[in-house]
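Listing 4. Sequential folding, example run.
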Amino acid sequence: MKRLMTFSLIVLLPAGILAQDRIVPRSTLAVSFDLARFGHTDSSSYFELYFACFPPLVTLERRIDGYQGYLEIQTQIKNKQTGEYALQNRSLLTVSVKDTIDPSYHNTLVTQMGYVLPKGEYELYVTGIDTLDQRRRDSLVIPLVSGPDNSSGVAISDVELCSKIEQSDNTTGMFFKNAHEVIPNPTLLFGTANYPVVFHYAELYGLNPSDTYVVKVVLADAGGKPLQEHTRKKKYGVRNAVEVGTTNVVKLSSGKYRYQLYVLSESSEPLARVEKNFFVYNPQVKSAQVTDARMKETELSGLTGEELDQEFAYLRYHATEPEIKLYSQVTSVDGKREFLAAFWTIVEQGKMGRDPITRQEYMTRIKKASDRFRAFNREGWRTDRGRVFILYNEPDEIERMPSTESGKPYEIWHFYQIENGIEFVFVDRTGFGEYLLVHSTKRGELRDDGWRRLLQ
C-alpha cells in the first residue's frame, strides 16, 4: 500500500472586497484534529492528518457573491533526536457561504494532508489561524511515533473514524484511499444529530492469505468496560488488506467512549489491537446522569433563587452561550435548581473536554480566586487570573516580573502536566493591579506570540 507524499499549496487571497461588512465570530477559534498512521515501507511510515473547522468560528468578509474567510493551517514536524524539522507546511482552507442562513454555514469543513516520513520519533506542531483576524488562533503539540510494525506478525494501522465510507474509483479525490472514498470525522463526535453511524477504516498487514481471521469491534465506556460487541470471520486472501466497517451509536447515552478493533486467529487467539477515543451526543437517551442529577438537586435544596443564580454565574466558565441563554429563561426556583443540578452532573464528569471536578472543589477554587485576585472593583473570580486558576488549578510555577522604567509588570504561569506543558502570560496593563491575559500556549486560549510589545 505504497503512497506518494502529498503537499498542500497556499492559495493567494482574492481581492475585490465590495464592502467592509464582516461576520465576526463570538466564540474562540477551535480546530478539530485527528491523525492516523499507516504502513509504507520498511524504513518509512505514512501519516494522515485530519482537520475540521466550523464556519461560524471563522471571520468572514463580504465578497461579490457572499462571504468568505480563510483558515490557515501551519504544520511542523520535528525529529526529536536531531531537532531538525522533517516538514514545515502552510495550507489554506477557504470558507465560502452566501450568508448566515446558507446551510453550508452550519456544516463542518473537513480537509486532510498526507506525509511520508522516515521511521522515528517526532513532535507535531499544528497552528490554526483565522487569517482575517490573526489574533484568533488555535494550536496543539503532540508526540508522533512511526506507524505499525508488522515484522513480527499481523499488525493494524491506526483506526480512522469516519462520517462516511463508500467504494469509489475517483482516484484524484482528496479522500480517495484503496478503492474507497474515506471521509474522516476529525471532531470524533457522533450521534443522532450529526452522524448516527461510525464508519471505521483500518489497514491490516502481515496476513497469511490462506488463513481465516476474526475481526472484532468493541464499543467500551471511558473506563474500558465493553458495552457493544460484534464479530465476523473473513478470509482476506492477501498479505495486506483494508478493513472497513460500521457501528450504530444511536442507543448510546451522551459521553466519551472507546472504539476498539481486534484481529484474532480463527481459534480466537489475539493477534493485533488498536483503539481510539470518540464522543457521542444523544440527548434523547437517558442515562445514569438522571439519577445523579436528582441527588444533586437534594444537595442544592437549601439555596434561594438568588443563590442559585450566583452559583450558575460561578459556572459560566463551563457554560456555552446557548446554555447561559437557556438558564436566563428559567424563572422558577425549582426549575433553576433542576437545571443547575443537571449542569453540575455534567461538569463533575468532565465537560467540554475538561477534567472532571466536584462541586466542592470548584467552589473552593472560586473562594481562593476571589481572595487572591481581587483587582480594583472586580471580584477575584471574575478576573483573568481567577478564571485560569478556577479552570486549571494551581500553576506549577509562576514567574513574577516587577515594573521597570521601560516595562509593565507581568506574570507567567507554567503548567507542566497539561498538553506537554503550557503557559499563561498576564500583564498589568492599566497599573491598577488587574493582570490581563495577553498570551497562552493552551489550546483554545488567547494566543499572541508578540505579547512583549504590550509591556511598553
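-- end of first protein; second protein begins --
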Amino acid sequence: MAKFVPQPELSLNDQMQIRREKLATLQAEGRDPFVQTKFDFNADSAAIKADYEAFEGKTVKVAGRLMSKRGQGKVMFCDLQDRVGRIQIFVKIDELGEEEYNRFKKYDIGDIIGVEGEVFKTKTEEISIRAKVVTLLSKSLLPLPNKFHGLTDKEARFRQRYVDLMVNPEVKRNFVIRSKFIKHLRNYLDSMGYIEVETPVLNTIAGGAAARPFVTHHNTLDIDMYMRIATELPLKRLIVGGMDRVYEVGRIFRNEGMDPKHNPEFTTVELYQAYADFHDMMDIAEGVYTTFAKEVMGSYELEWMGEKIDLGIYGADSKLAVSSSLLGDSAYGFDFTTLAEDAKNSEFWALVGTTYSEAEAQIGDLLDSLSGFSEKEDEIKKSLEDLKKEVKKVLNKTDVSVSKDKVSVGGEDVKAILINYEFGKDTVNEIAGLVIDWYADFMKAYTEMLPAGSSDIDLDPAEMKSSLADILDEVDNLKFKLSFALNVKSADIMLFEGEMTGESDEGKAKAEVTVDFGKNPAESDSFDAKMKLTDVDGQEISAKATVKRTNDKDSFERKISLSAESDGESHSLEIGFKHDKESKNFSFCYTMDDEKAEVNGTLEYSDNDLSLVVEKIIINGEETVLGIKLFVKAGEEVPAMPDFKNLATMSKDDYTALGESVQQNVLPILNALGIPGLGSSGGHHTINPDYDYDDEDPYDIYRNFDNTYDYDEDGDTGDDDDYAVWEYMNSLLFGDGDDDFDWDSYIGD
C-alpha cells in the first residue's frame, strides 16, 4: 500500500490564481457565469424542512452559495446555503450526466449555484435534494474563511460584513431581527395614534444632545452646517405646533470615538407625546419590547450575553398560583407565559392516558363545533322567534280575561291589572307538538355541529307526539290556569300564578306555582317562589324559595333560601355570599338542615386583576385553617413559594404526590360538607334576557325587566281597551305586542 503523503496547503494567492483560471476556462467554453443573470427558484431550505411531507417526491428549484463538498467517485454531497438556511444537495453522476458531473466537481466553495431536483430523505433521514440540473450562477474568486476557524477577527468582521454574513448565520439573523423590530416598532406606534415624520439631517445649530457634530459647508448659503446629533429639537417643535404624538426612526451622526458599541453613525427612535408623563413612556417602552418578543420572536423568554431574561413579567399575560397548607406547604400554578411550550412535553398527558396532540385535536374539534354554533346563532334565534309566533297563535284561541283588582305582593295589597289564561288538553297537545317539532329540528342541527365521532341524537317527532298523546289520554279534565299581575304604574309583572289540574282512574292531581316579585320588581331586593304538588293519593309536597340581594356602595350580598315538606318531613337549604367592598372580606355560608359550613377570606379584583385568599373553613363549629392563595394578575410574576411547581412541567411523581395530598387533606373536608353535588351546576333563571350589564359597576349583576313600552304620563288619552292589554302582555311574552297602546289612559288616575 502506498504511503499517504500530505500535500502542502495552497497559499491564498495560489487559490485565487486557480479560481481565476477556472473562470477563464468557463469563459472560453462559452459558459461565463457572470452572463447568467436570472434563476427562477420556487422553494427555499426552510420551507422544505418545515413541510417535508408536502415537498417529498416533488421537483423544486433552489439557489444559494455552495458551502461544503464531500464525497468522491460517482457521488457527492454538498451544503447549499440560501437566504433562510442550509439544505443538503445529493449529486450523482447517473442523475446529472458525466459531463456536467465532471464540471460540478470543479466548482469551488463559495460559488453560487442553482439546483433543480427531487426532494427526498437519505438513509440517515437527512432532508435533501437529488440534483437533476446544476447551474453555475456566479464564480467566487476569493475563498471563504477557514471552515474550522471561520471569521473571528473583530476588525475583519466589521470591515467585511458581507463575508461575516456568509459564514456566521447568527449575524444575518441579527439583521433580520433588526428589520422586523423596526417594522414592529412602527406598527406599534402607528396603532397608538403616533405620526412618523422626517426632520432635517443638516442643521444650523448642533443641539439636542451633548456630542461633537460633523461639520460641512453649505455652498449656496455659504454657511457651516451640522449633521444632526439628535432628532429631539425638531420633534419638540412639532409638538408645539399641535401634533400631539410624533416619532422618527432616523440616522444620527456624532464625530466621536469608535468601538464595538459606538459608531459615528447610528439609528435611533425618538418619540414625543403631549399630555403624558414618564409613566406613559415607560408603558410604551415595555409594550414595544414585550409585544415584539411574543409576536415576532415567539416567546417572552430571551437570552442576552448568557443571561436569561423573562419579559413576561412586563407583559399582558397573566399568571396563576395556588398555595395551601392543605397541600403540605407546597405551591402549584401555571405560568401562562410559557404554558403553551411547556404543555407539549408535560407528563400530565401520559398520566391521564392521552397525548398533547390528541388533546389539542379534541380541543380543535370542540372549537370547530363552537364555530358551528356561532354560524347558526342567527338561524337558531329566528327559529325561536318563529316558535313564539306559532305558540301565540294557539294561545290567542284560548280563553283570556283582563280585569282590574288588588293583589297581595310583597306582603301588601297593590292595585294591579290581571291577565288570565285558561286552556285544556287540546291546547296543551297543540303547543307541545310545536315545541317537539322545533326541538327535533334544533337537535338535528346540533348534531351536525358536533365534532366528528360524537354520538348521534336520533329523535322521531311523530313518536314523541304519540307518546305525549298516550299520556294525555290517561288524564281527564286536564286544565291549565296562568295568571299575571301587572303593576299599574310600571307595567312590570309583580306576580305569576300557575295551576294545573287533572284526573285519572286513580284520582285527582294538582300542581300550583306562585312567584312573587314584589311591588316594584326593578327596585326590589328579593323575590319569593312557592310550589305545591298534590298527588292522586292526597300526598302533598311543598317547596319555598327566597332570593335576597343587597348591593350598595359598601357591600354585596346574595342569599338563597330553599325549604321543602313531604310526608311530614321537612328539609331546608340556605346558600349565602357576602362581600365587604372596603375591607375586601368575604364569607360564603352553606346550610343544609342541621349541617352548616362557612368559608372566610378576602377577595379583591379589578378589570385585569383578581386576588383570592381562602383563610379558613368552619364545619359545624369546627375550624380548619386553609391558607389557599390564588391570584390572576397582569404583569406579575408567580411569587416565590416553597417548592413551587409549574403544573405544566411537573413529573409523574409530582402529580402522584399532589393526588395523595388532595386525598389526605382536601377530600375529607369536602366529604364533611355532605354535599355530593356541590360541584354541579343547575339551571339559571333569567328574569330578563335583554339585560344590559353595567360596566361601571361590577356588582350590578341583578337582572331587571327591559320595558320597551312607553307609558309616558303625559300621553294622549284613549278608550278602555282590554284587547290592547292582551296585546301588551304578548309583547312581554313574545316580543311583538301592540306598542301603540296607551297604558296610562287605560288605567286612568
